[in-house]
Specification:
Mean pLDDT: 81
Distance between the termini: 14 Å
Oligomer: single chain
Strand order of the largest sheet: 10-9-15-16-17-18
Order of helices and strands: HHEEEEEEEEEEEEEEEEEE
Length: 233
């Protein structure tokens, strides 16, 4: 009986987290947004830029990924509009490069999901982040993906070598907080998980060891109280 209520509590927990992830695509954003217009010209016909809350923001960031002195564009998009039968079409992560004053699609990878989840990145709530996680003085791309019907999330980390996108690491968990590296400070990934057997929340921290993200510590999460749902009569 107790395990049944614990499982229900965990399902409710993930349902709330998932509800923060389901936001429409760029049909809710005015098409006078120059960045979205320019990006869509470089994407396959019918593509839609992913828009998310908070802030009704496009999943689009300008940054120099390959250290050539020219800013690239990182964008998450679909290859077609949503439909009644498929309201969350699969998303694609793409890098657009600037050539002759115009953007062109240089590399892309399918994320195999139509749902992205929010993560905390240096205190900001976002669904797309760029930072140097590996200490090589180049930016990595971070997205937090989830599969419909599945409770867990996966933090996926990609790099761009100028020609292709490569997934260098993936960390499974529930709630993620990322602290970027600055100067001599190493970047840290924190995964907050709930142990339904102990009814406790834990913070697991990961750091790059040169080859992968290695778990460095696991401590009780402060300020998080885990309670099973109340039993209804």
């Amino acid at each position: 009986m107790r395990n049944r209520f614990l499982k229900r509590g965990l399902i409710v927990f993930f349902a709330i987290a998932l509800s923060l992830s389901l936001y429409p695509l760029d049909n809710t954003v005015a098409y006078d947004d120059k960045r979205i217009k320019e990006a869509r010209k470089a994407l396959p016909e019918g593509s839609r830029v992913y828009i998310y809350e908070p802030g009704n923001r496009p999943a689009l960031i300008d940054a120099d990924l390959d250290s050539n002195g020219v800013k690239d564009v990182v964008v998450i998009h679909t290859s077609r509009p949503p439909t009644d039968g498929d309201p969350f079409p699969a998303l694609t992560l793409s890098v657009l490069v600037r050539e002759n004053d115009a953007l062109s699609q240089r590399a892309s990878v399918r994320l195999k999901t139509g749902v992205l989840s929010v993560m905390m990145f240096d205190g900001d709530v976002t669904k797309l982040a760029l930072c140097d996680l590996t200490g090589d003085e180049r930016l990595e791309i971070l997205v937090l993906t989830s599969e419909m019907g599945e409770p867990g999330l996966t933090l996926r980390c990609f790099n761009f070598d100028g020609q292709s996108l490569n997934e260098i690491a993936a960390v499974s968990g529930q709630i993620f907080r990322i602290r970027s590296g600055e100067r001599d400070r190493q970047a840290v990934i924190t995964n907050i998980t709930v142990d339904v057997r102990e009814m406790k929340a834990y913070e697991t921290r990961y750091r790059w060891n040169g080859e992968r993200f290695e778990q460095t510590e696991k401590v009780p999460a402060e300020g998080i109280i885990v309670q099973p749902p109340k039993r209804t009569p």
